[in-house]
Specification:
With about 170 residues, the chain is an all-alpha fold. The chain has a domain at about 80-165. It is built from eight helices and no strands. It has helices spanning about 5-30, 35-40, 80-85, 95-100, 105-115, 120-130, 135-140, 150-165. Helix 5 crosses helix 6 (about 120-130), helix 5 packs across helix 8 and helix 7 (about 135-140) crosses helix 8 (about 150-165). It starts with a helix and ends with a helix.
Length: about 170
């Protein structure tokens, strides 16, 4: 490189640094102030107190607890995992799949519903456990064309059969 180019490059870098030092305090001061341009343009319309409605809190509906039965199977039971392994996808890690469920019957219900409706198991699990939806609601959101109530009922009966066969 010629000496002139090196000098021009050095002067450009020094100039850029000087410009940053000069404008930096103005930029940071503006960002720190509570009344920035974003906050100034937002106005909240006043509402009369008599026209506001009290909002009742929504209750989160969860999948109903398993029906009272004499069969009580632990969710980590090897017999349950062996029974449900063919229902889930090949190579599924059963301990990870069962994680988070309150009961073995709830786990089996979601597994059977996933197989019966061809909805991914993890999607149904997320909607039931994390979003707090019933199995029927989760199926309805995932596959609107399916009869969600009938599919949930069918999965529930399959789960009960699995639990009873393991407990026997």
């Amino acid at each position: 490189m010629a000496m002139g180019k090196v000098t021009a490059l050095a002067l450009g870098l020094v100039g850029g640094f000087a410009l940053g030092v000069w404008t930096g305090p103005h930029i940071t001061q503006r960002a720190d102030s509570a009344a920035s341009a974003v906050h100034e343009t937002v106005t909240v319309p006043a509402t009369p107190a008599d026209t506001t409605k009290a909002v009742e809190p929504r209750t989160v509906r969860r999948t109903p607890a398993p029906a009272a039965s004499t069969a009580r199977v632990d969710i980590s039971a090897p017999a349950l995992h062996d029974r449900l392994k063919p229902v889930l996808n090949k190579g599924a890690d059963m301990s990870v799949a069962a994680e988070g469920f309150r009961s073995a019957e709830q786990f089996a219900m979601v597994a059977h519903a996933a197989r019966n409706t061809a909805v991914p198991f993890l999607l149904l699990k997320h909607r039931v456990l994390d979003e707090g939806k019933s199995l029927a609601q989760a199926i309805r959101e995932s596959k609107p064309e399916a009869d969600a109530a009938a599919e949930a009922k069918h999965a529930s009966s399959q789960a009960r059969e699995d639990i009873e066969s393991i407990a026997s």
